[in-house]
Amino acid sequence: MSGILVILEQTQGMSIEALAAAQQIASELGQSVFAAIVSNDGQSVAAYKLDKVHAVAHPLLAEYTSDGYKLALKQLIEQHRPSGVLFPHTYQVRDFAPALAASLGRVLVSDVIGHRVENGSLVLVRQLFQGKLNADVRFQGDGPWFASIQAGAFRAENAVKGDASAPVETLTPTLEASQIRTKPLERFRESQRAVDLGAAERIVSVGRGIREQENIALIEDLAKAMGAELAASRPICDNGWLPMERQVGSSGQTVAPKLYVAVGISGAIQHLVGMKGSKTIVAINKDPEAPIFEVADYGIVGDLFQTVPALIEALKK
Amino acid sequence: MKIVVAIKQVPARDSLLKVNASGAWIDDADLSWEINEPDAYALEAGLQLREAASGEVVVLCAGPERATQTIREALAKGADRAIHIETNEAATDPLVLAKQMAAALESEKPDVILTGLQSDDLGYGQTGVILAEVLGYVHATLVMSIETTGSGIRVKRELEDGWFQNVEMPLPAVLTIQSGAAKLRYATLMGIKKAKSKEIKAVPASAGAAPLVTLERVYFPQKSKKSQIFEGSPQETAAQLVEKLRFEARVL
User: Fold this and answer.
1) How far is CA B181 from CA A91, A284, B42, B71, B222, in A?
2) Under 8 Å between Cβ of B247 and B240
3) Residues A36, A152 within the same domain
4) Residues 4-63 (A) with a CB less than 8 A from some CB of B
5) Contact flag A181-B169 (C-beta cutoff 8 Å)
6) What domain count does chain A have?
7) Minimal Cβ distance to A108: which of B126, B168, B214
8) Exposed, middle or buried, A31 (CB in 10 Å: 0-12/13-18/19+)?
9) B175 - beta bridge partners?
10) How close are the terminal C-alpha atoms of chain A, in Å?
11) Looking at the partner chain, which of A99, A139, A313 has a beta carbon nearest the beta carbon of B213?
């Protein structure tokens, strides 16, 4: 039993970050790296430095279902017996990977942001309490271990290409239609996006700290004074205080403006993944321990209802 | 329809946390506690499903003695009765917890089990999915709404990047509920009064396997960036920030 298996999705991005993580962790543990993709086409990732690509293909896997993915990948893992299995921490992985690990009597360590190898054994770092604390996590018992990698924790450009194309092996798992209990219907979007936050040079974003819908006007004034687009964290859009199209984060838009001003946003990981690529980040929050300050270039610890009016005044000078 | 809603009690959202003497969990002495926010949305979804399909809502909660406060609040909002799995183990892994929940539900045979998509403390985001696996139920995550159909249910799931998908499935099923999908109700005075006489069945946590994943150390993260924090009156901090944004970062 050896080697690290990284299970990729067809949409690249986070999958290549997970591949970079697998390569890095495997080299520190002195192990080989295998990739798997649920697709007929393993060639799309064969350019990376991998010992093998497993293309897992079956007509019943054409549309994602948690039952189908769990049963197919379980067979792959039982055949190849890797020492560890890595995933990108996508919504799809969150839907099936915990059940896959449990079906093999293991526990997935989800949302990993870092790692180290201590005396040949792996310690993973993940966040607790909405990013307020970090934890070092260790696996007990037999392998394989399972982990999913948070967006932005490893860099896709560090994924190493191979000298030659990696060999691709197709696995056709044994699946019966009766084993797939859910029936997925078509995918849809609710509304067209009228606001493209991705194109904005400056963004002023508001979170729970604003407390009431009528206070949003204050943040609108700040955005106007800065020549910025107005955005928000998820709870603001859930409350209907701003439209969903203005939401930044893993379930909204990903932005990387020149200036991102986070007002009353604590900085849960779901928000941070959507904005931490911004060039300059400003945080205004009353809680000095708020995780938003970890990514901020400039910060003001204080009451936004005093700070924001003062800021609007200062911008007029 | 028998609906079980699995809830968790967590520290209040704006708690100032401290690491305890063991270094492997938080000091829970002076904290105030509340229902895990995603679970509040699961409870709301459960109450709405009962209103649409009739039946009962049973709250399931693992935790120490203080969790009864959060359980009472759920009963006051309209749940019919509760099962309290008594445990003092705060940071166990989600497979151990799911097995304890499955054992506590053995005689219940629920049609639907609802829970929040993740907890605000450990945040594994897995307990519901693993519970489905342990019970052999079908599951769906990130559920926005639930409709009953002739043979089962149809749920609306949230996907990434603003996409959604409807998925049909038979019962029994476990659903993890996305936060914000519905307006949360408040407990009424009548609800609070009635809650006092509703049943809370205490069951011991089933002795099971040891955790397969352990927290070795918890700590405050190191800042990944050197941030400049401005101090002084609102006017002073605002002036310093604008100065820096104009002349150092050059973004205004």
Assistant:
1) 17, 28, 10, 22, 34
2) no
3) yes
4) none
5) yes
6) 2
7) B126
8) middle
9) B114, B140
10) 67
11) A139
| Contact status of A142 with chain B (Cβ, < 8 Å) | no
Residue B67's alpha-carbon distances to B35, B38, B121, B236, in angstroms, are 9, 16, 15, 45
B49: left (phi over 0), alpha (psi -120 to 50) or beta: alpha
Phi-psi region of B54 (alpha: psi -120 to 50; beta: other; left: phi over 0): left
Q: Which CATH superfamily is domain B2-204 in?
A: HUPs (3.40.50.620)
Q: A74-122: per-residue pLDDT in tens? A: 999 999 999 999 999 999 999 999 999 999 999 999 999 999 999 889 9
A132 interfacial to chain B (CB closer than 8 Å): yes
- Indicate whether A112 belongs to any domain: yes
Query: Peptide bond before A98: cis, by omega within 30 degrees of 0?
Result: no
* Token pair recorded at residue A124: 């993973």
Across the interface, whether the CB atoms of A134 and B218 are under 8 A apart is answered yes
Beta-sheet strand order (sheet of A229-232):
A229-232, A202-206, A259-263, A280-285, A298-301, B228-230
Does A297 sit within 8 Å of B140, measured CB to CB? Answer: no
* Cα→Cα distances B123→A187, A219, A252, B127, Å: 27, 30, 20, 10
E strand map for A129-253? 133-139, 145-149, 168-171, 183-189, 202-206, 229-232
ipTM attached to this prediction: 0.93
Phi/psi at A5 (5° precision) = -100, 125
Q: How many CB pairs under 8 A join A and B?
A: 251
pLDDT digit string, tens, across residues A4-47? 999 999 877 889 999 999 999 999 999 999 999 999 888 989 99
Domain of A129, in residue numbers: 4-179
Q: Of B141, B134, B133, B138, whose CA–CA distance to B152 is shortest?
A: B138
A165 vs A184: CA distance, rounded Å = 35
Q: Could you say which DSSP state residue A51 is in? A: S
Q: Minimal Cα distance from A265: which residue of B?
A: B14
Across the interface, whether the CB atoms of B121 and A129 are under 8 A apart is answered yes
User: Do A209 and A258 belong to one domain?
Assistant: yes
CATH number at residue A130: 3.40.50.620
